[in-house]
Amino acid sequence: MVNRTELLPIPDKLVVLTFDDGNKSDRLFVADVLLGHDFGGTFYITEGLNFLVNKDHYVTWEEVRELDELGFEIGNHTQHHRNVTKLSPEELTASVRHIEKRCTEHGITKPTTFCYPAFNNSPGAARVLEEIGYKFARRGVAPEFPYQAEGARGPAYDPETHHPLLVPTTGFSGPKWNFDDLKWAFAQAFDGRIAVLCFHGVPGLEHPWVTTKQSDFEKYMQYLKEEGCTVIAMRDLAKYVGI
Ligand SMILES: [Zn+2]
Fold first, then answer.
1. Ligand 1 centroid vs 49 CA: distance in angstroms?
2. Of the candidates 80, 149, 156, which has an alpha carbon nearest to the alpha carbon of residue 138?
3. DSSP characters over 56-102
4. Which superfamily does 4-239 belong to?
5. What is the pLDDT of residues 83-127, one digit of tens each?
6. Distance between Cα 118 and ligand 1 center (Å)
7. Where are the domains of the chain?
8. pTM assigned to the model
9. What's the CA-to-centroid distance between 138 and ligand 1, angstroms?
């Protein structure tokens, strides 16, 4: 438990960057763009999808270790990328522990934040994560905003109303999410609210419905820089939000 008096006030223009699924571009492209702006970010790693068999489209564990060493956060996206609402507490725990074990084996900092695969979440799953030591977890844009497969707007994270293990996504990028949506998400990050952005691959080779073009991503990051945003990883929320 953090003593609230030790917390920093939430500044305006606070933005959390997250990248799901361990796309190859995490290491080959995204990391350099973020380093160029001195931005933080979280890479949510799973051994599900085709992580284990398609190393043209997914990062290797060696590349994940490099991202950790570069100062980025490695977050937990479960072993199998299954719908956690259909898992027993024991199955969810095992799936989370598997990624922690892989991180330990590769000398990677133990994850302390989580991302719900395919945005499926429940209060029960959040309780399990809390019991096994997780601090923050990111869900999707629903139920407050309609889920749309190719990118969507969502609520800003308001620590006064949202549970830290059910942090909403303020914007997730895809073919139907554009610069106007990025600017809209930025505009939500005021008065104690935080914009939480979700990207998949830049580009997402295996999942074109959530892909982002490199030129668009560079433009988005440039905008956040020019606006003077504080851009952080999920774990850095602990500086501002008591849990
Ligand atoms: Zn995912």
1. 8
2. 156
3. TTB--HHHHHHHHHTTPEEEE--SS---GGGS-HHHHHHHHHHHHHH
4. Glycoside hydrolase/deacetylase (3.20.20.370)
5. 999 999 999 999 999 999 999 999 999 999 999 999 999 999 999
6. 5
7. 4-239
8. 0.96
9. 11
